[in-house]
Amino acid sequence: MSADNPFVVLKEEMDKLVVGHEEVKNALLLGIIAREHIYVEGPPGTAKTMLAEIVSGAAQLRFFFYQLHRDTRLSELIGDLVISKETTDTGEVIKQKVVKGGILTSEICLLDDISRAPGESLNVLLRILNERKFFDESIPLLTAIATSNPTADEYYNEPLDPANLDRFVLQINAQGLSYGKKWEEARQVIKLYTENPGEYEVPARLSREVFDEYYEKLGSVEIPIEVQEGLANFVATLIENYGCNETNSLISDRTFFVKSLKIMRAHALLNNREQCTVEDLRALKYMTAFRIPEEIFMQLDQILDELTAKKKKSRTAGAN
Asked: Among 93, 6, 106, which Cα is nearest to 58's?
């Protein structure tokens, strides 16, 4: 990201308070530019909530946080339910209305422990997120970040249903620094909070207008034929060479291809380009953490390296 990109200030604020977790930071920026939702899975203490709060504070966006639980009611997510009684000529009429709040009035929301939500509330919530509407009225939401602990036994956590998980275009598996054996980054955390033990107030750095401007630009970012072919080859490689199929992968033709183009365009804008290059194929890593088997995802950097190198070589040969 170049210094004159407006989103560099959001990255600066995240870096001030959170060491590492680069994939979560990048996914947040891509999600807010493309106005797509993000799913982050990781153990407690991996800065999931903190990063969302930093971005919303620095970007001056209305923020809503809610920790879901087994008894979550829909009214806790969308505002207060007001019931009134009126007397008419034909008798008493009971009316109810929603005094909007929560996700209906926020621009960024963080839904913690989303997999714990009861089915009835979760289904309505996901429909609101998907349609960006409450009944027929649009809501101002840019991005929802849903978090969940790992599905390991010690967290008493169940995985999201694949169909629900697929509502979140960007998917990140966040690892702790210690168990990820990132010792240098762990030392930086110790140093950071030794020098800054108190609370830190996030300064305002951007406004909603910047996000509106970049969202308007998104559709005009050009995607050359070589990048289009690279996307098709990426999916073909996963299926033909690595055994991804309908039983183990969430790569549906329309959803994955259409959303991939949008995220690659956002990646180009994040790097101050109005035309995609093969380097933007690397943004696909932020879409596949839970769409393909873990053992294949672990090889994704190599797959993308080979794919981009092949495209660059082909372009050089064509130029000669």
From this structure: 6
User: Regarding beta strands 91-100 and 137-138, do their DSSP bridges make them parallel or antiparallel, or are they unpaired?
Assistant: unpaired
pLDDT at 313: 63
Element (H or E) spanning 253, and its range? helix 253-270
3-state secondary structure of 267: helix
Residue ranges covered by each domain of the chain: 8-69+106-200, 219-319
Tell me the C-alpha distance between 259 and 281, whole Å: 12
Which of 125-134, 174-183, 184-193, 195-204 is modeled with the greatest confidence? 125-134
CATH no., domain 8-69+106-200: 3.40.50.300
Q: What is the mean pLDDT of residues 13-32?
A: 89
Inter-residue contact 48 to 147 (CB < 8 Å): yes
* Residue 125 burial (CB count, 10 A): 25
**Are the CB atoms for 144 and 112 separated by under 8 Å?**
no
What digits encode the pLDDT tens for the residues 296-315? 999 999 999 988 887 666 66
Judging by DSSP bridges, how do beta strands 137-138 and 79-88 pair with one another? unpaired
Residues paired with 79 in a beta bridge: 100
Instruction: Average the pLDDT over 129-149 and give the result.
Output: 90
Residue with tokens 């429909």: 127
Outline where DSSP puts E strands in the chain.
Answer: 38-41, 63-67, 79-88, 91-100, 108-112, 133-134, 137-138, 143-148, 170-173
Does residue 156 come out as left (phi exceeding 0), alpha (psi in the -120 to 50 range) or beta?
Answer: left
219-319 is classed in which CATH architecture?
Orthogonal Bundle (1.10)
The length of the chain is: 320
pLDDT digits (tens, 9 = 90+) for 247-284: 888 888 778 999 999 999 999 999 999 999 999 999 99
